[in-house]
Amino acid sequence: MESETANTKKVSGTQADLLAGNLIKHLSTSEGTGHSLTVFLSTLRYVPPLLESSEALYDATNLLVSTWLQICQGASPHDVLSLVSYNGALRSLQKALDDPHKQTSSATLAATIYLQTTEASGLNSNRIDQISHCNGIYAIMMKRGAPKPGNGLGCQLILDSFGFMFRLLIRGDIDNFFTQPDWENALSTILADVVRRFAKIRNVPEHLRDSQALEALSIALRDVGESFRALDRNTVQPLLQSKTIYEEDDPKSPFGTSYVFPNGVTALHFTNAASFNILINTLRQELNAMLDINDPSPEAECLEWSERIWRSCRYTLSLKPLCSTSFST
Q: What are phi and psi of 247, to 5 degrees?
């Protein structure tokens, strides 16, 4: 259980309410525009109620939103960061990390991730050792452990941190703790909740007439879908753009080319991201059928994600037998 010390400094209600209002307005008006921060961070919708009680989260969120809005308005990413605000956010975060009651809280982990995201978008990478900040996120996650099933914010924080953890994984700096049972279970619950709700509606005919249940399911599916699309944008697309993952001619492939990966960890993540998105789009097809909606896009997206997996098969088969078995399971 996360607790607060009696003498914790809190942000004034007026400040927190103002930032919460600005954040909610941004999230509602930027949906679907390509400029929403939810492209990178799925946890922002959980943040408004936490701002008043966590100075570190308030400062990190305030810096993130103000920096992002300036970038969206056309400012250069290298010129938008306020060093005064940035240094203040670092001090607030350090105080939280020094407090044994706060150092592993969801608010502190979110603040650390948000600062890292701001640094990645608003600073020249040569000016900050981003790997050291990734190590900080990793240390908090290891100390707090995997979130319990049903902890929505805790599970979403895994996804928001994944891009930074993936840097450490492909460098070989950390073991792939995501495959450990408690972490794997936490990740699976993000999708499992949506799948359970689908099964309930499918198996009980009267639920098909429950418009509120169907709307809630649609929202949940949209949110989890955006989370896994963001996972691909933040971790897979940069590797394709930098040619860390690249295609080469393959006459045996039905598509004429196959992917080449730097290592098995990267290939496994690549195919897992595709598999998650196939599942989500399959569920979208099911929901559209329930609602009698004619939308060909989920099927088209399934085919695109499936093509990625097909293009990965040659690399999978090239692994040593033991590695290949582990990969395929």
A: -100, 150
Per-residue CA distances from 271 to 13, 18, 191 (Å): 45, 42, 17
Q: How many CA atoms lie within 13 A of 71 on its CB side?
A: 20
Cα separation, 283 vs 255, in Å, equals: 26
Which residue's entry shows tokens 């240390």? 139
DSSP for 238-256, written as a single string: HHHHTTSSEEEE-TTSTTS
Give the residues across from 249 on adjacent strands. Answer: 257
List the chain domain ranges: 1-144, 148-329
* Selection from 177, 218, 227 nearest residue 198 by Cα: 218
Check residue 2 and give its pLDDT. Answer: 43
Residue 182 has pLDDT above 50, yes or no: yes
Report long-range pairs for 201-204 (Cβ below 8 Å, ≥24 apart): 201/290, 202/286
Determine the Cα–Cα distance for residues 298 and 278; give it in Å rounded to an integer.
Answer: 9
How confident is the model over 187-205, as a mean pLDDT? 66
Q: How far apart are CA 295 and CA 265, in angstroms?
A: 35
What are the distances in angstroms from CA 150 to CA 189, 198, 261?
Answer: 7, 17, 35
Contact 60, 111 (CB under 8 A): yes
pLDDT of res. 72? 74
User: Nearest 5 degrees, angle CA 313-CA 228-CA 30?
Assistant: 140
Q: To 10 degrees, what angle do helices 130-144 and 152-171 make? A: 130
> How far is it, in rounded angstroms, from Cα 311 to Cα 229?
19
What is the rounded distance in angstroms from the CA atom of residue 1 to the CA atom of residue 45?
A: 21
Adjacent-strand bridge partners of 248: 258
